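stuck on this one:
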Amino acid sequence: MDTVERLEIIEEIRRVMARYVRYADHHRWQDLAALFTPEGTFTPHKPDGSVWLRMEGREQIAATIGGSNSPDDTLVHHLFSDEIDVASATEAHGVFAMEDIIVRPDDAPVNDDFPFRGMHGYGHYRGRFVRVDGSWQIAELVQTRLRLDFTN
């Protein structure tokens, strides 16, 4: 694989992750889940390193992420520096620095389903990407956290 091919793959993967955060910000859960392979996984961790939960497959990813956010929530996701290593023409791995913010309306109830009014998180996405039928998809995404700040 030459340098241009490698750089094209890196850019395509950056675009997959850019769509991921845009779809999250706009509550487009089915579109977000479609970025994953049919059997893809998403595993967010807590700042202490323990697994928060593990989602498998597009349907569970869309339902779980969508169910944890109210339609009235404002979501903001940012991706910063990335490190993408191309293993082959069909597989790559990447680490993306990230920040996410959730703001719930002032009148939103604080309960077990929504235990906070605001959240500001920092961490990294670590992904394994595969090319399927000519397009790059997320086979595995792990979110690690450096810090989470909550407001009530």
